[in-house]
Each structure stands twice: as C-alpha cells, then as structure tokens.
Amino acid sequence: MEKEPLNWTICQECLGRGKKSRRISKKTRLLYQIALDEFEKTLGKGTAPLPPKGNLYSCPDCSGSGLLATANPPEANEEYPHIAIIGGGIGGMALAVACLHRGIPFTLYERDKDFNARSQGYGLTLQQASKAIQGLGIFSLKEGVISTRHLVHTPEGKVIAEWGTRKWIQSDIKTSSKRTNVHIARQSLRLALLEQLGGNNKIQWGHQLLDFKEHDDEGIDLSFQVDGKIKKAKADLVVGADGIRSSVRRQLIGENATSLRYLGCIVILGICPLSALQHLNNALLDSATIFQTANGNERIYIMPYSSGSVMWQLSFPMSEEEAKLLSNKGPGALKEEACRRTQWHAPIPQILSSTDENLISGYPVYDRELLKPEVLEKSGPVTLIGDAAHPMSPFKGQGANQALLDALTLARIIFKGCRPLSDWRKAGIRKNALMEFESEMLQRSAVKVQDSAEAAQFLHSEIVLHESDAPRRWFKK
Ligand SMILES: Cc1cc2nc3c(=O)[nH]c(=O)nc-3n(C[C@H](O)[C@H](O)[C@H](O)COP(=O)(O)OP(=O)(O)OC[C@H]3O[C@@H](n4cnc5c(N)ncnc54)[C@H](O)[C@@H]3O)c2cc1C
C-alpha cells in the first residue's frame, strides 16, 4: 500500500462527519411551527409534522472526509466507553481505525495468530465504500485497480451486454454521476487499515472470544482462549465484528432464531497470474475489464485482482450436501470441477487451467434472515457489525462495503452520543448510541442482503442471458 504520510484526527468543523447541515430558513421554521400548532389542535388525531432538517453538504475544511492531518495520533480519552472489538477482519479493523481518529479507547481482539494466518485470498470491489475509506484515512490504494469496462458473454463468446465508462464515453453518455469501482485484494485493504492503525502490535492476535457477561455497573467481562489458556478482559461496549459465524451474535440471540440460510449454490474461486496467459494476447486481460459468462446454470465472473493477476469466481446451483462434500475435497477436486464445467470461449479454459491449486478455494453460499432492530433491543452494551449482523451472498460484492460503512457510522455515532460529560454511563450506551446505529445499519444493509440473495438465483437462470447493455441487476425480474 502507498504509505499515508500523516496521522489523522477528526475535523472540528464537522466533528468528523464529513458533512455539515445548512441552517434551516426562517420561513421553513415558521411553516413547521404552523403545522405543529394545527396538529396540536387535533388533540393528537392528525399526523404530527416532521421537524425540518437542514440540507447536508460536504464539509469544506476536510473535503468531506471528516479528517484532518495531525503530527501525532490522538490520545485515547478514557471518558468515552472502552470498546472491545471482536474480530480483526475488514469491519473490525475499520472500526478500530475510526475509533483511533476520534480518541475513543478500544482493544481489538482477533482469533488468528497473525495477519497471514490463513489463506484470505480473494478480491473485493469497493463501490460506495471507495469514498467511505477516505473517512478511514485511506486516500489512495496503490494496489487498487480501476475497471472501465464490463462485459457479459454467452459460452460461445458472443457479447450480450456491455457497460462501464469506456462504453459511456464512446456513446457520449454523461459519466459524471457514475461511481468508480476499485478492485483490490481483501488482504491489501486489510493491510491499508492495519497501517492506519499503527501496525501489528495494535491487535491482540491469537485471542478467540469464548463468552462475555454484562454486569450492572461495571461493564462487561470477556473471556478469551489464548494459547490454550483462558484470559479475562473488561470493556464498556462489545462490538461483534466476527464474521458470518459470529460467536457474539450466537451468544446474544442464539443460533436458532436466524440460522445460516443456504442459498442453493457453491462458489469456486481462483487467482491466476497474467504472466501465465501472456501468449493469448486477449483484450479481456487488459487489467481494466471485468467480464462474466453464463449459460443459465453456471456463471463465471472474472475481474482484475491486482495489476498482474485476475480473480475468477465460478458459481452454480448444487444441493447443500453436495456443495459441502465438494468443498471438503479441496482445491484439486474444485479445480477439476470448475474446468469440466467451463469449456467455453477463450480465455476462460486457459485461465482456469493456469490457476495454481494453492490459489483455489470453494464453499457453499449462505446468508441469514434479516435482523429486526427489536431483536437487539435488549442487548445492552453489545452490538454487531459487518457479516456478524447481516451476512449476504457475494454476488453483489456488497459485504465488505457494508462492513466499512457500519464501522465508520458506529464510530461517528459513539463520538457524538457518548462524548465526555454526556450521560452515557447513566443512560446507557444503547440509548445514547446503539439504537440509532442499529436502526441506520439494518435499514441500509437490508436491501443489499435481499438483492444479494436474489442474485444467487437469477445469475444462475436464463434471465442472465437477456441482451441489454446494463448491469444484470437492472432486469432481474
Ligand atoms: C469470494 C468472496 C468475494 C467477495 N467479494 C466482495 C466484494 O467484491 N465486495 C464486498 O464488499 N464484499 C465482498 N465479499 C464479502 C466480504 O468479504 C465480507 O462481507 C467482509 O469480509 C465482512 O467483513 P467482516 O469484518 O464483517 O467479517 P470478516 O472479514 O469475515 O472478519 C471476521 C474476523 O473475525 C475473526 N473471528 C471470528 N470469530 C472470532 C472469535 N470468536 N474471536 C475473535 N475473532 C474472531 C475472524 O478470524 C475474522 O478475522 C466477498 C466475500 C467472498 C467470500
């Protein structure tokens, strides 16, 4: 990653929100007062008018990031609640960074022994979050690759859809409102967050959360398994950022209420170096094109992974039992199955056969039923972010985007609701911050979970073969 030269602290002008709200005009306030008076005359029978809100605009002092450069990282202010963040994946690391910038004390616990403990090799596409990461002090992703063209093919190689800035520029369609998608390896993004955090020693590696217990006035006791021994810790607030099989979630609401929901398909993933494909001289391998090919059952999606490699993701319907069996057989069997199913147009067979088995993985696809805010209502000073709160299928590429947005939103709300001299100890962190956070998070992510589940169906159906220059989601029904 490109080294960010500076530390960051929050912008005092917008208090780290990146946005400011315009003053509400006298006329609007007056109209509201009239409507309120009218409502009161109905003795509560009519509909109460909503108080006017000032329009938001990007803060000019920090250009909308909510951050300003500083010589030293801010000191933690112990007047804020101390947060135990469980899980050092995308969401947990992002939350730690956002807390660091705000002087909110935290400890980040991760079950893995170190950063590279497991193979975590797959690529992410930053969509909405490509802007949000600036709020985490990441202004450039050196390893990030920008795509300008997206193509959909039939297995014979006929192009049935094309979109992206290259197409829009050619056809003179205005692109100003189009977002830029950045493709990046998950570990590269994690590394950028780790660097913001100040390095490896800022994480309690090898700490697997076992359980936690809330005490009325003394916060929460946590127990971890560390090197085969039990270790205890304390916190005022616990945030479960521990992924789709979250143990914080299990302890909060049980496994049965919203158990894992199998979405009827398996994904097989691989990463292939472009150096192995140079002889093909294929325009699809220009490090700026995403292409997918589908036949109404199998679907393969290939995107730049780094400037020197591509990532492929093959998916197809399969029973849960068969999918588990195939996944357990390991990379050799997964590769064989993937090659057998995709004897399609170039360069697909060549990419799959040139992929090293060490860089192949595959697993059945799950999500969970949507959480309702009421389910968390009695959770006290404990909450969830990212996949722990709202796991979703990978077909919309939204999981990490939502986890990053959750992290930044939660830190911003805690900063405001639990500031020193606020009554958070008396009123409770739930009332001062978590209720607002969970309501925003669950509403924002619900549509992504649903769309991602629908995509697991229609991407493996005839619908995907419809000829139209638009992302496949635009005609899913
Ligand atoms: C193939 C694939 C492609 C994807 N593509 C995209 C994409 O393009 N765009 C996108 O936005 N999303 C994508 N996603 C989804 C995205 O990766 C996840 O949604 C995202 O990583 C969730 O982040 P998280 O922090 O919630 O959980 P994770 O990143 O899963 O992190 C959870 C962490 O918690 C730790 N942990 C678990 N249990 C404990 C415990 N008991 N104690 C301590 N630590 C614990 C784990 O070791 C892990 O490090 C993709 C996912 C896959 C699999």
TrEMBL record:
Superkingdom field: Bacteria
Keywords: FAD, Flavoprotein, Monooxygenase, Oxidoreductase
GO molecular function, one term: monooxygenase activity
Transmembrane portions of the chain: none
Record has Transcription as a keyword: no
InterPro entries, per the entry: FAD-bd, FAD/NAD-bd_sf
Domain FAD-binding intervals: 83-414
Pfam family, one: FAD_binding_3
Name of the protein described by the UniProt record: FAD-dependent monooxygenase
